[in-house]
Amino acid sequence: MKTVEYWLARFVLATLSFTSLSTANALARSYVRLIDLALPRLRRTALKNLEMAGFAGRERITTGVFDSVARLVVTFARFPQITRDNVAEWIRYEGLENFQQAHARGKGVLVATGHFGNWELSAFAHAYLVAPMQIVVRPIDNPRIDALVESRRELSGNRAIAKKDAARGILRALKAGDAVGVLIDQNTTPDQGVFIDFFGVKACAGSAFVKLAHHSGAAVVPGYALWSDKEGRYVLHFEPAVEMTGDVQQDTQQVHSRLETAIRKNPDQWLWIHRRWKTRPPGEAAIY
């Protein structure tokens, strides 16, 4: 089965790499639509999440989420064709000075991002436009697909840190003054996080991120690459640094409140199909 998965992944990447961009975008939307139809729980999860968060137009937003994933897959398939010379055709910066000021502090930068917009391209392009960074990743269960994905992620000079044993690698990178990108928006368990308010609903958020910021003195900068229909490319937004107080609960809330504000402006680009609110406070009923 893993071999079939691998060759299917290779086929998808090939069809999106060696066709015209318009054809690739159409194919990607078709592939993602098949996933939508084959796994109806994903759309159900998104609709439930959007209802809890108080959004209207939930079907439209959910369809937009799948369209956003399709754009991401096309871009990822074309990583070998994106170079230092043409990367500006795919993405530009907004707020780069926020990252530069944080980096100038000299203690490294923790980039707080999420499954929002094109998280793959943001790190990939940053390596060409500014400098390589390190990214925390959870290895894919299929080792051959994992190797394929990791090789593409590192084409622009970035290096991956495995999530399972990330703390040591992150601290080493920060001590060297590097930037480290971390996806902070996934559900976790109470022993690994704290409950914060996220879209008005209690969510269990990993606390390791701010603990590493406290320990290292690294600056925390929210950053995400969002699609612009007007420009036909992504815009990599870096926000002003989140000033750490030293309080784990408060700082975790601060970082997620920033992310929530950004998602509210572009709700169709966040991965609502993830069961973000699966872990409940003691005594609360399951949501999904």
Q: Helix amount, in percent? A: 40-55%
Strand percentage lies at 15-25%
Class from helix and strand fractions: alpha/beta
Beta strands, count: 9
Order of strands across the main sheet? 1-9-8-2-5-3-4
Q: Let me know the largest β-sheet.
A: 7 strands, mixed
- The overall pLDDT average reads 97
The whole-angstrom Rg is 19 Å
Distance between the termini: 28 Å
- The helix-strand sequence is HHHHEHEHEHEHEEEHEEH
Q: Give the helix tally.
A: 10
**pLDDT below 50 for ≥5 consecutive residues: which ranges?**
none
Backbone shape: globular
What's the short version?
The chain is α/β, with parallel strands linked by helices and 288 residues long. It has helices spanning 2-17, 21-38, 40-52, 58-77, 96-103, 119-129, 143-153, 166-175, 208-216, 248-265, and strands at 91-94, 109-113, 134-137, 159-162, 179-183, 193-198, 201-206, 219-228, 233-238.
Task: Name the features.
288 residues, 9 strands, 47% helix, 10 helices, alpha/beta, two-stranded antiparallel ribbon, seven-stranded mixed β-sheet
Explain this structure to me?
Helix 3 crosses helix 4. The chain is globular. The chain has 288 residues and is α/β, with parallel strands linked by helices. The protein has a seven-stranded mixed β-sheet, with helices on both faces. The protein has a two-stranded antiparallel sheet with strand order 6-7. 47% of the residues lie in helices and 17% in strands. The protein contains ten helices and nine strands.
